[in-house]
Write a structure and sequence with these properties.
Largest sheet: 8 strands, antiparallel
Mean pLDDT: 96
Strand content: 15-25%
Helix content: 25-40%
Shape: globular
Structural class: alpha+beta
Low-confidence stretches: none
Length: 470
Protein backbone atom coordinates (compact mmCIF):
# COMPACT_ATOMS: atom_id res chain seq x y z
CA UNK A 1 0.00 0.00 0.00
CA UNK A 2 1.08 3.54 -0.72
CA UNK A 3 1.72 6.45 1.57
CA UNK A 4 -1.16 8.92 1.09
CA UNK A 5 -0.07 11.44 -1.52
CA UNK A 6 -0.64 15.16 -1.06
CA UNK A 7 -3.24 15.03 -3.83
CA UNK A 8 -5.12 12.15 -2.17
CA UNK A 9 -5.03 13.90 1.21
CA UNK A 10 -6.38 17.09 -0.36
CA UNK A 11 -9.20 15.13 -1.98
CA UNK A 12 -10.13 13.56 1.36
CA UNK A 13 -9.97 16.92 3.15
CA UNK A 14 -12.18 18.59 0.53
CA UNK A 15 -14.68 15.73 0.79
CA UNK A 16 -15.00 15.75 4.57
CA UNK A 17 -14.45 19.42 5.44
CA UNK A 18 -12.59 20.82 8.45
CA UNK A 19 -14.52 18.73 11.00
CA UNK A 20 -14.01 15.56 9.01
CA UNK A 21 -10.29 14.99 9.44
CA UNK A 22 -7.35 15.76 11.66
CA UNK A 23 -3.57 15.69 11.37
CA UNK A 24 -3.09 17.29 14.76
CA UNK A 25 -0.47 15.44 16.80
CA UNK A 26 -2.50 15.50 20.01
CA UNK A 27 -5.61 14.13 18.30
CA UNK A 28 -3.60 11.46 16.51
CA UNK A 29 -1.87 10.47 19.75
CA UNK A 30 -5.25 9.56 21.28
CA UNK A 31 -6.26 7.43 18.31
CA UNK A 32 -2.83 5.86 17.76
CA UNK A 33 -2.77 4.73 21.40
CA UNK A 34 -3.76 1.14 22.17
CA UNK A 35 -5.46 -0.04 25.34
CA UNK A 36 -2.81 -2.56 26.42
CA UNK A 37 0.15 -0.47 25.19
CA UNK A 38 1.49 -3.46 23.25
CA UNK A 39 1.29 -1.72 19.86
CA UNK A 40 2.10 1.83 18.77
CA UNK A 41 -0.06 3.34 16.06
CA UNK A 42 1.65 5.63 13.57
CA UNK A 43 -1.14 7.03 11.41
CA UNK A 44 -0.57 10.58 10.18
CA UNK A 45 -4.22 11.39 9.43
CA UNK A 46 -7.58 10.39 10.87
CA UNK A 47 -10.89 10.79 9.08
CA UNK A 48 -14.20 11.58 10.81
CA UNK A 49 -17.01 11.13 8.24
CA UNK A 50 -20.49 12.20 9.29
CA UNK A 51 -22.63 10.22 6.83
CA UNK A 52 -22.58 6.90 5.02
CA UNK A 53 -22.05 8.56 1.64
CA UNK A 54 -18.96 10.30 3.05
CA UNK A 55 -17.59 6.96 4.23
CA UNK A 56 -18.25 5.47 0.79
CA UNK A 57 -16.60 8.34 -1.07
CA UNK A 58 -13.60 8.35 1.29
CA UNK A 59 -13.15 4.60 0.80
CA UNK A 60 -13.38 5.04 -2.97
CA UNK A 61 -10.71 7.75 -2.88
CA UNK A 62 -8.44 5.51 -0.85
CA UNK A 63 -9.08 2.60 -3.21
CA UNK A 64 -8.20 4.72 -6.23
CA UNK A 65 -4.97 5.82 -4.54
CA UNK A 66 -3.97 2.41 -3.13
CA UNK A 67 -4.33 3.60 0.49
CA UNK A 68 -5.12 1.17 3.32
CA UNK A 69 -7.84 2.04 5.83
CA UNK A 70 -8.08 1.06 9.50
CA UNK A 71 -11.70 1.39 10.73
CA UNK A 72 -11.91 2.54 14.33
CA UNK A 73 -14.67 2.94 16.90
CA UNK A 74 -14.12 3.90 20.53
CA UNK A 75 -10.60 2.42 20.42
CA UNK A 76 -11.25 0.30 23.50
CA UNK A 77 -10.24 -3.00 21.88
CA UNK A 78 -7.87 -5.38 23.65
CA UNK A 79 -6.14 -7.07 20.70
CA UNK A 80 -4.66 -4.26 18.60
CA UNK A 81 -7.40 -4.47 15.99
CA UNK A 82 -7.67 -0.69 15.49
CA UNK A 83 -3.94 0.13 15.33
CA UNK A 84 -2.76 1.82 12.11
CA UNK A 85 0.69 1.89 10.57
CA UNK A 86 2.33 5.03 9.21
CA UNK A 87 1.03 4.74 5.64
CA UNK A 88 -2.50 3.84 6.69
CA UNK A 89 -5.50 6.08 7.28
CA UNK A 90 -7.69 5.76 10.38
CA UNK A 91 -11.40 6.10 9.67
CA UNK A 92 -13.24 6.82 12.92
CA UNK A 93 -17.04 6.75 12.97
CA UNK A 94 -17.72 8.77 16.13
CA UNK A 95 -19.68 11.48 14.26
CA UNK A 96 -22.08 8.84 12.92
CA UNK A 97 -23.82 8.42 16.27
CA UNK A 98 -27.52 8.95 15.57
CA UNK A 99 -30.08 6.69 17.23
CA UNK A 100 -33.21 6.57 15.08
CA UNK A 101 -36.33 4.59 14.34
CA UNK A 102 -36.80 3.10 17.80
CA UNK A 103 -39.87 0.94 17.30
CA UNK A 104 -41.52 -0.32 20.50
CA UNK A 105 -43.81 -2.67 18.58
CA UNK A 106 -41.04 -4.27 16.55
CA UNK A 107 -38.67 -4.13 19.55
CA UNK A 108 -35.94 -2.70 17.30
CA UNK A 109 -33.77 0.39 16.99
CA UNK A 110 -31.52 1.59 14.17
CA UNK A 111 -28.24 3.23 15.14
CA UNK A 112 -25.18 4.75 13.53
CA UNK A 113 -21.97 2.80 14.02
CA UNK A 114 -20.52 5.62 16.11
CA UNK A 115 -23.26 5.50 18.74
CA UNK A 116 -21.88 4.92 22.24
CA UNK A 117 -23.18 1.68 23.72
CA UNK A 118 -24.43 3.41 26.89
CA UNK A 119 -26.37 5.91 24.77
CA UNK A 120 -28.19 3.04 23.05
CA UNK A 121 -29.00 1.47 26.41
CA UNK A 122 -30.34 4.80 27.68
CA UNK A 123 -32.42 5.42 24.55
CA UNK A 124 -34.03 2.01 24.90
CA UNK A 125 -34.71 2.61 28.61
CA UNK A 126 -36.70 5.78 27.86
CA UNK A 127 -39.19 3.52 26.06
CA UNK A 128 -39.17 0.95 28.87
CA UNK A 129 -37.04 -1.34 26.71
CA UNK A 130 -33.66 -2.98 27.11
CA UNK A 131 -30.64 -3.26 24.86
CA UNK A 132 -28.83 -5.99 26.82
CA UNK A 133 -25.25 -5.74 25.57
CA UNK A 134 -23.27 -4.66 28.65
CA UNK A 135 -19.53 -4.49 29.22
CA UNK A 136 -16.96 -2.52 31.14
CA UNK A 137 -16.25 0.00 28.36
CA UNK A 138 -19.91 0.73 27.61
CA UNK A 139 -19.49 4.43 28.42
CA UNK A 140 -16.95 4.91 25.63
CA UNK A 141 -17.08 1.99 23.19
CA UNK A 142 -18.99 2.46 19.94
CA UNK A 143 -21.51 -0.05 18.64
CA UNK A 144 -19.60 -0.39 15.37
CA UNK A 145 -16.62 -1.71 17.29
CA UNK A 146 -18.87 -4.02 19.32
CA UNK A 147 -20.24 -5.40 16.06
CA UNK A 148 -16.83 -5.70 14.45
CA UNK A 149 -15.51 -7.79 17.35
CA UNK A 150 -18.78 -9.60 18.18
CA UNK A 151 -18.48 -8.36 21.75
CA UNK A 152 -19.81 -10.51 24.58
CA UNK A 153 -20.06 -8.96 28.02
CA UNK A 154 -22.07 -9.67 31.12
CA UNK A 155 -25.46 -10.78 29.78
CA UNK A 156 -24.50 -13.38 27.18
CA UNK A 157 -25.99 -16.24 29.19
CA UNK A 158 -29.45 -14.68 28.77
CA UNK A 159 -29.29 -12.70 25.52
CA UNK A 160 -26.31 -13.96 23.54
CA UNK A 161 -23.31 -12.19 21.98
CA UNK A 162 -23.60 -9.06 19.87
CA UNK A 163 -24.15 -11.25 16.81
CA UNK A 164 -27.39 -12.49 18.38
CA UNK A 165 -28.68 -8.94 18.87
CA UNK A 166 -28.47 -7.77 15.23
CA UNK A 167 -31.19 -7.92 12.57
CA UNK A 168 -29.58 -5.87 9.82
CA UNK A 169 -26.51 -3.90 8.78
CA UNK A 170 -25.43 -1.20 6.38
CA UNK A 171 -21.85 -1.72 5.23
CA UNK A 172 -19.42 0.17 3.01
CA UNK A 173 -17.41 -2.32 0.96
CA UNK A 174 -13.70 -2.05 0.04
CA UNK A 175 -14.42 -0.43 -3.34
CA UNK A 176 -16.65 2.25 -1.82
CA UNK A 177 -19.97 0.65 -2.77
CA UNK A 178 -22.69 0.35 -0.12
CA UNK A 179 -24.53 -2.81 0.87
CA UNK A 180 -27.83 -1.82 2.45
CA UNK A 181 -28.79 -4.81 4.56
CA UNK A 182 -30.72 -2.84 7.17
CA UNK A 183 -33.77 -4.88 8.02
CA UNK A 184 -36.20 -5.52 10.85
CA UNK A 185 -36.95 -9.02 9.62
CA UNK A 186 -36.62 -11.82 12.15
CA UNK A 187 -36.87 -14.45 9.44
CA UNK A 188 -35.22 -14.15 6.03
CA UNK A 189 -34.00 -17.21 4.14
CA UNK A 190 -33.02 -15.53 0.86
CA UNK A 191 -29.51 -16.83 0.42
CA UNK A 192 -26.39 -16.36 2.55
CA UNK A 193 -26.88 -14.30 5.71
CA UNK A 194 -24.40 -11.57 4.76
CA UNK A 195 -24.60 -9.65 8.04
CA UNK A 196 -22.73 -12.47 9.78
CA UNK A 197 -19.77 -12.04 7.44
CA UNK A 198 -19.19 -8.54 8.78
CA UNK A 199 -20.02 -9.12 12.45
CA UNK A 200 -16.79 -10.29 14.08
CA UNK A 201 -14.69 -9.53 10.98
CA UNK A 202 -12.93 -6.62 12.74
CA UNK A 203 -13.29 -4.28 9.76
CA UNK A 204 -11.33 -6.53 7.42
CA UNK A 205 -14.23 -7.10 5.01
CA UNK A 206 -16.25 -3.89 5.21
CA UNK A 207 -16.97 -0.84 7.33
CA UNK A 208 -20.21 -1.14 9.29
CA UNK A 209 -22.00 2.22 9.19
CA UNK A 210 -25.46 1.42 10.62
CA UNK A 211 -27.20 -1.44 12.38
CA UNK A 212 -30.73 -2.47 13.27
CA UNK A 213 -30.66 -4.02 16.74
CA UNK A 214 -33.05 -6.14 18.80
CA UNK A 215 -34.59 -4.72 21.95
CA UNK A 216 -36.22 -6.55 24.86
CA UNK A 217 -38.65 -5.76 27.69
CA UNK A 218 -37.02 -3.73 30.43
CA UNK A 219 -36.57 -5.80 33.62
CA UNK A 220 -38.95 -4.76 36.37
CA UNK A 221 -37.25 -6.79 39.07
CA UNK A 222 -33.60 -7.61 39.69
CA UNK A 223 -32.17 -9.87 42.38
CA UNK A 224 -28.41 -10.00 42.90
CA UNK A 225 -26.35 -12.15 45.23
CA UNK A 226 -22.71 -12.68 46.14
CA UNK A 227 -22.01 -16.33 46.90
CA UNK A 228 -19.03 -18.18 48.37
CA UNK A 229 -18.52 -21.50 46.60
CA UNK A 230 -15.93 -24.13 47.54
CA UNK A 231 -14.85 -25.05 43.99
CA UNK A 232 -15.53 -24.24 40.34
CA UNK A 233 -17.37 -27.57 40.15
CA UNK A 234 -19.70 -26.35 42.89
CA UNK A 235 -20.22 -23.13 40.93
CA UNK A 236 -21.46 -25.17 37.96
CA UNK A 237 -23.80 -27.11 40.23
CA UNK A 238 -25.14 -23.80 41.53
CA UNK A 239 -25.57 -22.55 37.96
CA UNK A 240 -27.55 -25.63 36.94
CA UNK A 241 -29.72 -25.39 40.07
CA UNK A 242 -30.39 -21.68 39.53
CA UNK A 243 -31.28 -22.16 35.86
CA UNK A 244 -33.79 -24.89 36.66
CA UNK A 245 -35.39 -23.33 39.73
CA UNK A 246 -35.59 -19.78 38.34
CA UNK A 247 -37.15 -20.76 35.03
CA UNK A 248 -33.90 -19.66 33.34
CA UNK A 249 -34.22 -16.11 34.68
CA UNK A 250 -30.43 -15.78 35.09
CA UNK A 251 -29.02 -12.75 33.30
CA UNK A 252 -25.49 -12.96 34.72
CA UNK A 253 -23.38 -15.59 36.44
CA UNK A 254 -19.80 -14.50 37.15
CA UNK A 255 -17.04 -16.58 38.75
CA UNK A 256 -13.97 -15.07 40.46
CA UNK A 257 -11.00 -16.50 42.31
CA UNK A 258 -10.19 -15.23 45.79
CA UNK A 259 -7.16 -13.37 44.38
CA UNK A 260 -9.35 -11.58 41.82
CA UNK A 261 -11.87 -10.68 44.51
CA UNK A 262 -9.17 -9.47 46.91
CA UNK A 263 -7.52 -7.19 44.34
CA UNK A 264 -10.76 -5.22 43.93
CA UNK A 265 -11.60 -5.09 47.62
CA UNK A 266 -8.05 -4.10 48.56
CA UNK A 267 -7.15 -1.58 45.88
CA UNK A 268 -10.35 0.14 44.75
CA UNK A 269 -12.03 2.90 46.77
CA UNK A 270 -15.52 2.78 48.24
CA UNK A 271 -15.90 -0.98 47.95
CA UNK A 272 -17.20 -3.06 50.83
CA UNK A 273 -16.32 -6.73 51.30
CA UNK A 274 -19.63 -8.57 50.77
CA UNK A 275 -18.92 -11.59 53.00
CA UNK A 276 -17.06 -11.90 56.27
CA UNK A 277 -15.97 -15.46 55.56
CA UNK A 278 -13.04 -16.36 53.31
CA UNK A 279 -13.41 -18.66 50.33
CA UNK A 280 -11.34 -19.77 47.36
CA UNK A 281 -14.05 -18.93 44.82
CA UNK A 282 -16.81 -16.34 44.50
CA UNK A 283 -19.91 -16.15 42.32
CA UNK A 284 -21.99 -13.10 41.40
CA UNK A 285 -25.44 -14.19 40.30
CA UNK A 286 -28.23 -11.99 39.01
CA UNK A 287 -31.83 -12.82 38.14
CA UNK A 288 -34.06 -10.46 36.17
CA UNK A 289 -37.72 -10.46 35.16
CA UNK A 290 -40.00 -8.11 33.27
CA UNK A 291 -43.08 -9.54 35.03
CA UNK A 292 -44.46 -6.88 37.43
CA UNK A 293 -45.44 -9.32 40.17
CA UNK A 294 -42.32 -11.43 40.42
CA UNK A 295 -40.52 -11.64 43.77
CA UNK A 296 -37.02 -12.53 42.65
CA UNK A 297 -35.35 -11.88 46.00
CA UNK A 298 -37.40 -14.59 47.68
CA UNK A 299 -36.77 -16.92 44.74
CA UNK A 300 -33.02 -16.29 44.89
CA UNK A 301 -32.93 -16.85 48.66
CA UNK A 302 -34.71 -20.18 48.18
CA UNK A 303 -32.20 -21.19 45.51
CA UNK A 304 -29.28 -20.29 47.77
CA UNK A 305 -30.79 -22.19 50.72
CA UNK A 306 -31.01 -25.28 48.52
CA UNK A 307 -27.47 -24.73 47.28
CA UNK A 308 -26.04 -24.47 50.80
CA UNK A 309 -27.88 -27.59 51.91
CA UNK A 310 -26.42 -29.44 48.94
CA UNK A 311 -22.90 -28.07 49.57
CA UNK A 312 -22.79 -25.99 46.38
CA UNK A 313 -22.39 -22.80 48.44
CA UNK A 314 -20.98 -22.01 51.86
CA UNK A 315 -22.12 -18.42 52.39
CA UNK A 316 -24.13 -15.79 50.54
CA UNK A 317 -25.64 -12.34 50.71
CA UNK A 318 -28.50 -10.96 48.63
CA UNK A 319 -28.43 -7.25 47.80
CA UNK A 320 -31.23 -5.40 49.59
CA UNK A 321 -30.79 -2.07 47.80
CA UNK A 322 -29.49 -0.63 44.57
CA UNK A 323 -26.42 0.65 46.42
CA UNK A 324 -25.61 -2.86 47.64
CA UNK A 325 -26.12 -4.25 44.13
CA UNK A 326 -23.75 -1.64 42.69
CA UNK A 327 -21.15 -2.53 45.30
CA UNK A 328 -21.26 -6.18 44.25
CA UNK A 329 -20.89 -5.29 40.59
CA UNK A 330 -18.09 -2.84 41.36
CA UNK A 331 -16.04 -5.72 42.77
CA UNK A 332 -16.48 -7.80 39.63
CA UNK A 333 -16.11 -5.00 37.09
CA UNK A 334 -13.15 -3.48 38.93
CA UNK A 335 -10.92 -6.55 38.67
CA UNK A 336 -9.07 -5.53 35.47
CA UNK A 337 -8.24 -2.10 36.93
CA UNK A 338 -7.37 -3.45 40.37
CA UNK A 339 -5.07 -6.09 38.95
CA UNK A 340 -2.79 -3.32 37.74
CA UNK A 341 -1.88 -2.60 41.36
CA UNK A 342 -0.38 -6.09 41.60
CA UNK A 343 2.17 -5.44 38.85
CA UNK A 344 2.34 -6.73 35.30
CA UNK A 345 -0.27 -9.19 34.08
CA UNK A 346 -0.54 -11.60 31.18
CA UNK A 347 -4.13 -11.97 30.06
CA UNK A 348 -6.13 -14.55 28.17
CA UNK A 349 -9.69 -14.20 26.85
CA UNK A 350 -10.66 -17.82 26.33
CA UNK A 351 -13.74 -20.02 26.31
CA UNK A 352 -14.48 -23.70 26.77
CA UNK A 353 -17.72 -25.66 27.04
CA UNK A 354 -19.31 -24.67 30.33
CA UNK A 355 -18.83 -28.17 31.74
CA UNK A 356 -15.08 -27.90 31.09
CA UNK A 357 -14.49 -24.67 33.04
CA UNK A 358 -13.27 -26.51 36.19
CA UNK A 359 -10.82 -28.54 34.07
CA UNK A 360 -9.53 -25.36 32.44
CA UNK A 361 -8.97 -23.63 35.77
CA UNK A 362 -7.34 -26.60 37.50
CA UNK A 363 -5.06 -27.54 34.61
CA UNK A 364 -4.29 -23.95 33.66
CA UNK A 365 -3.29 -22.79 37.13
CA UNK A 366 -1.13 -25.87 37.69
CA UNK A 367 0.61 -25.55 34.32
CA UNK A 368 1.22 -21.81 34.77
CA UNK A 369 2.72 -22.35 38.23
CA UNK A 370 4.98 -25.11 36.88
CA UNK A 371 6.12 -22.79 34.08
CA UNK A 372 6.65 -19.68 36.22
CA UNK A 373 6.97 -20.46 39.95
CA UNK A 374 5.32 -17.83 42.11
CA UNK A 375 2.93 -16.68 39.37
CA UNK A 376 -0.41 -15.48 40.77
CA UNK A 377 -3.48 -16.67 38.84
CA UNK A 378 -6.32 -14.14 38.61
CA UNK A 379 -9.13 -15.93 36.75
CA UNK A 380 -12.59 -14.39 36.50
CA UNK A 381 -15.37 -14.18 33.99
CA UNK A 382 -18.64 -15.22 32.52
CA UNK A 383 -18.70 -18.85 33.58
CA UNK A 384 -22.34 -19.09 32.52
CA UNK A 385 -21.20 -19.05 28.89
CA UNK A 386 -17.78 -20.64 29.42
CA UNK A 387 -15.77 -17.43 28.90
CA UNK A 388 -12.93 -17.02 31.40
CA UNK A 389 -10.54 -14.09 31.51
CA UNK A 390 -7.59 -16.22 32.56
CA UNK A 391 -5.22 -13.53 33.82
CA UNK A 392 -1.95 -14.01 35.68
CA UNK A 393 -0.14 -11.43 37.83
CA UNK A 394 3.64 -11.44 38.03
CA UNK A 395 5.42 -13.18 40.91
CA UNK A 396 6.24 -10.75 43.69
CA UNK A 397 9.95 -11.56 43.39
CA UNK A 398 10.18 -11.26 39.60
CA UNK A 399 10.97 -8.11 37.61
CA UNK A 400 8.26 -6.84 35.27
CA UNK A 401 10.35 -7.07 32.06
CA UNK A 402 11.42 -10.62 32.89
CA UNK A 403 7.83 -11.62 33.49
CA UNK A 404 6.43 -10.03 30.34
CA UNK A 405 9.17 -11.74 28.34
CA UNK A 406 7.34 -15.01 29.13
CA UNK A 407 4.10 -13.84 27.47
CA UNK A 408 4.35 -16.16 24.48
CA UNK A 409 5.45 -19.11 26.62
CA UNK A 410 2.45 -18.71 28.91
CA UNK A 411 0.12 -18.19 25.95
CA UNK A 412 1.22 -21.48 24.46
CA UNK A 413 0.63 -23.37 27.71
CA UNK A 414 -2.85 -21.90 28.32
CA UNK A 415 -3.98 -22.01 24.70
CA UNK A 416 -2.87 -25.63 24.36
CA UNK A 417 -5.07 -26.54 27.32
CA UNK A 418 -7.98 -24.52 25.96
CA UNK A 419 -7.70 -26.21 22.57
CA UNK A 420 -7.46 -29.68 24.10
CA UNK A 421 -10.72 -28.95 25.95
CA UNK A 422 -12.48 -28.01 22.72
CA UNK A 423 -12.32 -24.28 23.46
CA UNK A 424 -11.44 -21.01 21.73
CA UNK A 425 -8.39 -18.78 22.16
CA UNK A 426 -10.62 -15.70 21.71
CA UNK A 427 -14.02 -15.60 23.37
CA UNK A 428 -15.12 -11.97 23.08
CA UNK A 429 -12.15 -9.67 22.38
CA UNK A 430 -11.42 -10.71 18.80
CA UNK A 431 -8.14 -11.56 17.09
CA UNK A 432 -6.74 -8.23 15.89
CA UNK A 433 -2.98 -8.18 15.63
CA UNK A 434 -2.35 -9.70 19.06
CA UNK A 435 -3.73 -13.17 18.31
CA UNK A 436 -3.27 -13.33 14.53
CA UNK A 437 -0.38 -15.80 14.71
CA UNK A 438 -2.13 -17.78 17.45
CA UNK A 439 -5.18 -18.18 15.19
CA UNK A 440 -2.98 -19.47 12.38
CA UNK A 441 -1.29 -21.87 14.82
CA UNK A 442 -4.48 -23.40 16.26
CA UNK A 443 -7.04 -23.19 13.45
CA UNK A 444 -7.36 -26.06 11.02
CA UNK A 445 -5.95 -25.74 7.53
CA UNK A 446 -9.51 -25.89 6.18
CA UNK A 447 -10.65 -23.00 8.38
CA UNK A 448 -7.69 -20.81 7.41
CA UNK A 449 -8.28 -21.61 3.73
CA UNK A 450 -11.91 -20.52 4.03
CA UNK A 451 -11.03 -17.35 5.96
CA UNK A 452 -8.46 -16.35 3.35
CA UNK A 453 -10.86 -17.15 0.50
CA UNK A 454 -13.54 -14.90 2.00
CA UNK A 455 -11.04 -12.06 2.53
CA UNK A 456 -9.70 -12.39 -1.01
CA UNK A 457 -13.18 -12.48 -2.53
CA UNK A 458 -14.42 -9.35 -0.76
CA UNK A 459 -11.18 -7.36 -0.33
CA UNK A 460 -8.78 -8.72 -2.96
CA UNK A 461 -6.35 -5.82 -2.58
CA UNK A 462 -6.22 -6.09 1.23
CA UNK A 463 -7.16 -2.46 1.76
CA UNK A 464 -9.34 -2.81 4.84
CA UNK A 465 -7.51 -3.28 8.14
CA UNK A 466 -4.59 -5.20 6.62
CA UNK A 467 -2.52 -7.41 8.91
CA UNK A 468 -5.42 -8.08 11.30
CA UNK A 469 -7.11 -11.45 11.92
CA UNK A 470 -5.36 -13.22 9.01
Amino acid sequence: MSRPSDAALLELKNLLGPKGFSMDEDVLAQHNAEARCKFDGKAEIILFPARTDEVAKAVAICAANDIAIVPQGGNTGRCGGAVADQHQVILNLKRMNKITDLDARDFTVTVGAGAILKSIQDAAATHDLLFPLSLGAEGSCQIGGNLATNAGGLNVIRYGNTRDLVLGLEVVLPDGSIWNGLSKLRKDNTGYDLRHLFIGAEGTLGIITKATLKLFPQPKHIATAWVAVPTPDAALDLLALARRDSGDAISAFELMSSFAHDTSVTHLPNITRPLASNTDWHVLIELTSSRPGDDLNTLLIDILDTAMTAGFATDATVAQSDAQRKNLWAIREGIPEAQGFEGASIKHDVSVPVSKVPDLLTSGMTAATDLIPGIRPCPFGHVGDGNIHFNFSQPTDMAKPDYLARWEDLNRVIHDIVTDLGGSISAEHGIGRLKRDELAHYASAEKMKLLRAIKTAIDPDDRLNPGKVI
